[in-house]
Amino acid sequence: ETLDKGLEKSKDNFLSKMSKAVAGKSKVDEDVLDDLEEVLISSDVGVTTTIKIIRRIEERVARDKYLGTAELNEILKEEIAGLLSETDSGDTDGFNFKSDGKPYVIMVVGVNGVGKTTTIGKLAYQFKKDGKKVLLGAADTFRAAAIDQLQIWADRTQVPMIKQQMGSDPASVAFDAVQSGVTQGSDVVIIDTAGRLHNKVNLMNELTKVKRVMQKVIPGAPHEVLLVLDGSTGQNAFEQAKQFTAATEVTSLAVTKLDGTAKGGVVIGISDQFKIPVKYIGIGEGLEDLQVFNKFEFVDSFFK
Ligand code: GDP
């Protein structure tokens, strides 16, 4: 999938609502701004970020005295890209792989069903294609299906995987995986973790323990904690981001399933509000359907 194709639904939804909002109007006035506010909120940009965007456009209207509705899209693009730049939440390079020693350890967190396993598979594929030696760790030991699913991706991408039987200690699997990564000379170790929705304290304890054992092998590990969010769930994704960032230090985000949804605006809101870089976006089910997030390209595709 290309980015334009992947964001098609979000864009069509946005554009059709926008064209209603500006129908018969040549100038951006109070009414148009009210409608625009509604359009942004219903595109899942989120209330806080929408208000920021509207303020900026109001300022521009006041400054320039006159703003034509024909230019509104262009202005939105500029203001949103500006907003994302200010919060420095739009990294364009993916992971930087700089660490104090090999391997670079990525711990992946997120609720079941958001596309965590698929995202790990796609990352493994990309890293391997870039010439890196990759190892997976199946530390979601809570469900047998989770281990099997990850195994399928390991086979598909021909990347080794460390696992134990279902029900074993996730921290023990994580330890084994990082240790094997060192022994095998891996460049990257990607660790899957359990995604069941348990209470905050349990989640925190479990993730803390998994991190602690990795640090016994490599003091700086994990070098990334990647939170995977399902973009098609809109406001739920915000809620999950809140819960996980409260439970552990999340360093980067991946937002999946943007191809199947009209809620793509969620990327803009999340990236503005959480000040954590969105590094990857998922725009399909295939191996290649994971892109490094670039805020300019994203905004460009969205408001085309
Ligand atoms: P997990 O439970 O979080 O590990 O979720 P999975 O990786 O098993 O994914 C759940 C479903 O979402 C699967 O059917 C995937 O094919 C699908 N999926 C994952 N990422 C994407 C994406 O970017 N686009 C689409 N359309 N589907 C996706």
From TrEMBL:
<dbReference type="GO" id="GO:0005737">
    <property type="term" value="C:cytoplasm"/>
</dbReference>
<comment type="similarity">
    <text>Belongs to the GTP-binding SRP family. FtsY subfamily.</text>
</comment>
<dbReference type="InterPro" id="IPR000897">
    <property type="entry name" value="SRP54_GTPase_dom"/>
</dbReference>
<keyword id="KW-0963">Cytoplasm</keyword>
<keyword id="KW-0675">Receptor</keyword>
<dbReference type="InterPro" id="IPR027417">
    <property type="entry name" value="P-loop_NTPase"/>
</dbReference>
<dbReference type="GO" id="GO:0006614">
    <property type="term" value="P:SRP-dependent cotranslational protein targeting to membrane"/>
</dbReference>
<feature type="binding site">
    <location>
        <begin position="192"/>
        <end position="196"/>
    </location>
    <ligand>
        <name>GTP</name>
    </ligand>
</feature>
<dbReference type="GO" id="GO:0005525">
    <property type="term" value="F:GTP binding"/>
</dbReference>
<feature type="binding site">
    <location>
        <begin position="256"/>
        <end position="259"/>
    </location>
    <ligand>
        <name>GTP</name>
    </ligand>
</feature>
<feature type="domain" description="SRP54-type proteins GTP-binding">
    <location>
        <begin position="277"/>
        <end position="290"/>
    </location>
</feature>
<dbReference type="InterPro" id="IPR013822">
    <property type="entry name" value="Signal_recog_particl_SRP54_hlx"/>
</dbReference>
<keyword id="KW-0342">GTP-binding</keyword>
<dbReference type="InterPro" id="IPR042101">
    <property type="entry name" value="SRP54_N_sf"/>
</dbReference>
<keyword id="KW-0547">Nucleotide-binding</keyword>
<keyword id="KW-1003">Cell membrane</keyword>
<dbReference type="InterPro" id="IPR004390">
    <property type="entry name" value="SR_rcpt_FtsY"/>
</dbReference>
<dbReference type="InterPro" id="IPR036225">
    <property type="entry name" value="SRP/SRP_N"/>
</dbReference>
<dbReference type="GO" id="GO:0003924">
    <property type="term" value="F:GTPase activity"/>
</dbReference>
<dbReference type="GO" id="GO:0005047">
    <property type="term" value="F:signal recognition particle binding"/>
</dbReference>
<dbReference type="Pfam" id="PF02881">
    <property type="entry name" value="SRP54_N"/>
</dbReference>
<protein>
    <recommendedName>
        <fullName>Signal recognition particle receptor FtsY</fullName>
        <ecNumber>3.6.5.4</ecNumber>
    </recommendedName>
</protein>
<keyword id="KW-0472">Membrane</keyword>
<comment type="function">
    <text>Involved in targeting and insertion of nascent membrane proteins into the cytoplasmic membrane. Acts as a receptor for the complex formed by the signal recognition particle (SRP) and the ribosome-nascent chain (RNC).</text>
</comment>
<dbReference type="Pfam" id="PF00448">
    <property type="entry name" value="SRP54"/>
</dbReference>
<comment type="subunit">
    <text>Part of the signal recognition particle protein translocation system, which is composed of SRP and FtsY.</text>
</comment>
<keyword id="KW-0378">Hydrolase</keyword>
<dbReference type="GO" id="GO:0005886">
    <property type="term" value="C:plasma membrane"/>
</dbReference>
<feature type="binding site">
    <location>
        <begin position="110"/>
        <end position="117"/>
    </location>
    <ligand>
        <name>GTP</name>
    </ligand>
</feature>
<dbReference type="InterPro" id="IPR003593">
    <property type="entry name" value="AAA+_ATPase"/>
</dbReference>
